[in-house]
Amino acid sequence: MDNNVQQSVVAILSRRPEVVETGPFVIGWDPTTDSRNVSYATPRPGAAVTADDVAALVAAFRAIDRIPRLEYVPGCCPELESLLLAAGFAIEARHTYLACTPATLAPLPVPDGFELIEPSTDEEHHGGLSVQNEAFGGEATATPADVERAARTQRNGGVVLAIRTTTGEYAAAGLASPPGAGLVEVAGIATAERFRRRGLAAALTAELAATAFRRGAQGAWLEAESPVAGRVYERVGFVPSGQRLYIALD
C-alpha cells in the first residue's frame, strides 16, 4: 500500500496548476496561494536520492518563492529523511494514513435534517469551502481562487461534497482527489463547530469514498491527525495502514 499511496501523491501534485520536476522530486504548486498545504514536493517511490538532489530541490523552491516542503511515505524513500535533516529541514509531523476499499467501506446515512450535495455552482462551492476554511483556521469566507480549485478538482475527476441543513445552512464539506495509481485521497473533512458530534464527518467521509468507488477508484486513503479523528474514519471502513512524513525548511 505504501508505494500506491506515494504514487497517488505524485499524481496529485502533477495536476497542480504549475509543476516543477527536479531530480527524483515533483513539486506541485499554485501561483494563486502561498498556502504550504497546497504547494509542496514529494519523491517518486523507489528513487535514489543524493544530497545534491536535495540542494537542487531547495533551489527550485526558492525560484518559485515557496517554502521548501515535502509530504511523503518514508518507507518509499528510506534515505531521504536523513538527507533532509542534514540540509536543515525540520519535521512538522508524522501522521498515520488509513486505507479503504469497496470491500471494507461501511456507508453511513446522512442524519435527519441534513442533505448531501455535490456543489455545481459558485454559491454552493462557496458554502462548503467557507466551512472548511473556518475549521482549518483560515478566512471564514472562501475566495474566488478557492472556488476555482474546488471546481478544478471536479473537472479532473475528483469528488467534492458538502452537507447542509434542509434550510440551507452549510454544516460540513470535504473532497476526494482525482484518482492516481487507482487511489483517491480523501481530504479536507470539516464540520462547522455548531454541527459537530452529530455523525456528519463519518457520513461525509463514507460518501466521498463511495462516490469515488462508483466512478472507478480501486481504493481510498486519508490521514488522521488525532486518535479521535482516526476512530471516526475507522467506523466507515478505513484501516490504519502506514505513516506519512511532513518536513520543511522554514
TrEMBL record:
Residue stretches in coiled coil: none
Lineage: Bacteria, Bacillati, Actinomycetota, Actinomycetes, Micromonosporales
Segments forming domain N-acetyltransferase: 115-250
InterPro entries: Acyl_CoA_acyltransferase, GNAT_dom
GO cellular component, one term: ribosome
Organism: Allocatelliglobosispora scoriae
Keyword terms of this UniProt record: Ribonucleoprotein, Ribosomal protein
Record's signal peptide: none
Protein name (Swiss-Prot/TrEMBL): Ribosomal protein S18 acetylase RimI-like enzyme
GO molecular function, one term: acyltransferase activity, transferring groups other than amino-acyl groups
Transmembrane segments: none
